[in-house]
UniProtKB/TrEMBL annotation:
This is HAD hydrolase, IA, variant 1 family protein. The keyword Nucleotide-binding does not apply. Signal peptide: none annotated. The keyword Hydrolase applies. It comes from the Bacteria. GO terms for cellular component: cytosol. InterPro entries: HAD-like_hydrolase_sf, HAD-like_sf, HAD-SF_hydro_IA, HAD_2, HAD_sf, PGP-like_dom2. GO terms for molecular function: phosphoglycolate phosphatase activity. One of its GO terms (biological process) is DNA repair. SUPFAM superfamilies: HAD-like. Keywords: Hydrolase.
Length: 212
């Protein structure tokens, strides 16, 4: 059976960490919460999203509007956001093996589609499931699996945050955490992902695909 891979976008496929920090600091003035200083970054990479929001002084009722504003700013800064360059040969091999790739993200579909087009990656992804809430990924994955007749037990979720691992475990999917994203590998390991990888090529090994 050909597996299905669900990918987080920011911090997993898109090297958007610095852009995200810049956007947060712009919005801090607009929505009156604490900005992120350079000395804070190591701490924020070692804690949950909920704790980060609390430390910044972001109220839950502010989140929907902040997310909308963040997506708009991301669109303006899209040209600045690079890929993790080592993904391209892996995506090509997965595509050649007819592995189904789906992006699931709280970013917007327009932003993700523009990013994929900008880097000529649109060929490799079957579907973009975008606009999820920061904490609603499991529900969207479940809905997508039902829609496309995907058995979650035969699917994988690749992401860079603890909430990605939690969503995968909730649906009995195989969780693959990546070490190069928003949260540091030591923190991610506490959530016991099925795999913690340091290079995308490891994904081929997990799937039993011989690297070319």
């Amino acid at each position: 059976m050909t597996p299905t891979l669900f990918f987080d976008f920011d911090g997993t496929l898109a090297d958007s960490f610095n852009t995200a920090i810049s956007i947060i600091n712009i919005l801090a003035n607009q929505y009156h919460f604490q900005s992120i200083q350079q000395d804070d970054i190591a701490l924020f990479r070692q804690q949950s999203l909920g704790k980060t929001l609390k430390r910044l002084g972001i109220k839950w009722y502010q989140l929907p509007q902040i997310i909308i504003s963040a997506r708009q700013l991301f669109n303006q800064k899209l040209q600045e956001v690079p890929t993790f360059h080592y993904w391209l040969p892996i995506l090509k091999q997965l595509h050649q093996k007819n592995v189904q790739l789906i992006i699931l993200s709280s970013n917007s579909e327009d932003n993700i589609q523009a990013f994929l087009t900008q880097h000529q990656w649109q060929l490799y992804f079957k579907q973009i499931i975008a606009g999820s809430s920061l904490f609603g990924k499991a529900r969207l994955i479940h809905k997508t699996c039902n829609q496309y007749n995907i058995n979650p037990k035969h699917a994988y979720y690749i992401g860079d945050e603890a909430r990605d691992i939690k969503a995968a475990k909730q649906l009995q999917m195989t969780s693959i955490a990546v070490s190069w994203g928003f949260q540091c590998p030591e923190f991610l390991q506490q959530y016991q992902p099925d795999y913690l990888i340091h290079h995308p090529e490891k994904l081929l090994e997990i799937l039993g695909i011989q690297p070319v």
